[in-house]
Design goal:
The complex is a heterodimer of chains A (431) and B (336). Chain A has 431 residues and is mainly alpha-helical. Helix content of chain A is 77%, strand content 0%. Chain A folds into two domains: 3-79 and 154-422, ABC transporter involved in vitamin B12 uptake, BtuC (Orthogonal Bundle), CATH 1.10.3470; 90-153. By secondary structure, chain B is mainly alpha-helical. The longest helix of chain B is centred in the first third of the chain and has 38 residues, at 2-39. The chains are: A mainly alpha (431), B mainly alpha (336).
Amino acid sequence: MSDTTRKIALFALVAVLILGTGVLQSWNSALLILNMGLISAVMALGLNLQWGFAGLFNVGVMGFVALGGLAAVLVAMPPVPEAWSAGGLRVILGLLTGAAVIVAAAQVHRRLRRHRIAAMVAVLVGGFFLYRWIFDGGVVAVEAVNPAATGYLGGLGLPVLLGWPVGGLLAAGAAWIIGKTALGLRSDYLAIATLGIAEIVVAVMKNEDWLARGVKNVNGLPRPVPYEIDLQNSPDFAERAAGLGVDPVTASTLWVKLLYAGLFAVVLVVLLILAQRALHSPWGRMMRAIRDNETAAEAMGKDVTGRHLQIFILGSAICGVAGAMMTTLDGQLTPGTYQPLRFTFLIWVMVIVGGSGNNFGAVLGGMLVWFAWVQVEPLGRWLLEFVTSGMSEGPLKAHLLDSAAHMRLLTMGVLMLVVLRFSPRGLIPER
Amino acid sequence: MDLLNAIVALTNFVLIPGLAYGSQLAIGALGVTLVYGILRFSNFAHGDVMAFGTMVTILATWGLQATGVTAGPLPTALLALPVGIAATMILTLVTDRLVYRFYREVRAKPVILVIVSIGVMFVMNGVVRFIIGPDDQSFADGERFIFTARDFKEWSGLEEGLALKSTQALTVVTAVIVVALLFWFLNRTRTGKSMRAYSDNEDLALLSGINPERVVMVTWLIVAALATVAGVLYGLDKSFKPFTYFQLLLPIFAAAIVGGLGSPLGAIAGGFVIAFSEVFVTYAWKKVLTYTLPETLAPDGLVQLLSTDYKFAVSFIILLVVLLFRPTGLFRGKSV
């Protein structure tokens, strides 16, 4: 089978799977899978840039996705003026103080000749208490403002679509900081560093209530698409739905999801084209040269660490955009739901299964693995019901049926191991 | 007298918990560092190996409790521990045979093995949740305290209490025994020496007739035992939850790297460095400061440097600092 036919056949398979879900289960769940599949494909594209192009071992995807989600909230939610007047400026001042302390400590370390470690520590400790003194007061004031409904500073009240590029920028900023410190190190160390930073990002989002309400979640994000209820009340829409023979309630939910799918598809296609152009440009060839032999590339005068930093930032930014898209789709930011298995390691499964180093592979992996992730659960339940059908009622049977939900982790692991062993280059291998 | 109270409070809330947590991290980090030294990859599945061993131990404990067997004042889990270790040994050997051996034979790059270990992590995570479920399990029984805060207050007449949980004492004692056994094995026995030789220089070790498959097998057996012990001690001290064990991966790796990957001594030092700094930074110092400072300077707030939710941040920052200033760790580890 030639390369192109293989690609077409595999993408047709994904289409058939999703359409099959529509026919057999419901069109709503089919569109839900499609939407999250598109978002997953964007995440996989970002990770593929880092791992497939440059061989960077990033296990902090979750952190960048979460930052993207945060950006969507900060851009789209209406500001809370009472909170701003209560302590907003003090919080900002506190953060600026914190940044200034770090800069000052770095300067002390660089400028002083003698006792520079001691002086740096003194600056850091003193600065920490100053920062906490300014910052904590502001936080208490902000969080006291109507804690049940707001208790945070709110966002900028801008259109949520603007949050997508901002999410990318926020993730890129974080990636720059991590990359500056960790990229010179060995690959294992980068892995642990990214794993840690992702946990920290999520911990910050869970605990800093003034920022985005922490585990109290931000609900009711403004949408880029119309609300179902408005559609149902519009006579125009009801008429068209009736013309198609669908009742207006179902039609409105489907239409909203289709609009989302359209938006996501546009982002995915744009990013895919850009990534494809990058891969086949001199820059892309240089990246792969660095990946395959760092020493040789360095001898040819390539700035290995600089290029690594560049692509690390780009890939993380794409993950950030995907995170903002996901939060927009959900309409809420729920820091408690960010788990590394789902948002970091599952993306790895996508890239490995799809084919690392190949953009189409990453997109395919994103859609296919997401489909499997969603559908394994009902399949597992069905399988266990089949297995246990002969068993008498009892705790064991109940336990087995309860455990169906955990089948997906098992399946994903086995899928990944099988692909790594028997087809290590993935479904659509790098050319 | 006040200073005495401060010391007691510090011991009760910082030193003893730090010592217990540090021992648990150290045994966990020893497993990671052994895999790294011998098999030459960072094993992301280590947290889930720990979870598996603990799960089997818990199941065996429940079995023993159901038949009425207990270990008196000690937790029943100690009796069940050998079962857990044996099951985990089988698990690691089977995993090696089915998964890792292939990549050794084709001499895959270390990073490929790391990715493979992520796949193994998924499978083990799924198996553990499938068997015991994702919820918290508490399986400590026997005496809860060696002495309680009230006993101590009555005995000493101080305002502050000092409690010693039996699990904490047990953790430290077990850790000492385990570490002593491990070092005796690595330094005194023929197999242990061949392991160290293999870790130092694979080619030379092969030339001198060391059988690599045997070294790898022994390594997995030891790692399984260490992981199970670490997991059971942590579970007895706190509680068992699959997701928490997965999250332990971060402090354990931080400990192993801070100490120097591949260096057993470093893993122990790293474990205590990470544990004590986590406890130090997240402890509310109000009590201790109130006792030590003059009354006018007594703090109003809790004087907690960071909220406990940020304890991962602490291990991470230490990790970064060590990597920036001493990239091979405190005790020169390897850098492949």
